[in-house]
Amino acid sequence: MPGMSIGQLASRAGLNASTLRFYESVGLLPPPERINGQRRFDEGALDRIHFIKVAQQTGFSIQEIAVLLEGFEAGSSLSDRWERMARQKRSELEERKKQINSMIRILDNGIACKCLTWSECLEKIENTGSR
Known about the structure:
Number of strands: 2
Shape: elongated
Largest sheet: 2 strands, antiparallel
Number of helices: 6
Helix content: 55-70%
Radius of gyration: 22 Å
Structural class: mainly alpha
Strand order of the largest sheet: 1-2
């Protein structure tokens, strides 16, 4: 039988089959070919799922992912709308990146300082300007 079953795709993607059914129901995955009533997915589905997973992990909502994949409204330029959304999300991701880097520095300082209390450690960080 050509293509992958939903179970095979789920296994290769590291997801539950129910997650793939959900993605299909909200339009993130196009309806697959059916052979004898069974869903059959091509290899391209794995690339799409990888994109969806990365987008979710970086803070994109299901609706935003759908827009990125295909859901632009009629009436305005596709590239203009995509660019606006991409710039906004990029800005949000840059801000998250700064917050994550700040927390990493705090944790690294905490690991290195060997203080007895968190307050003492924070005081050291503030006094050394390592913040």
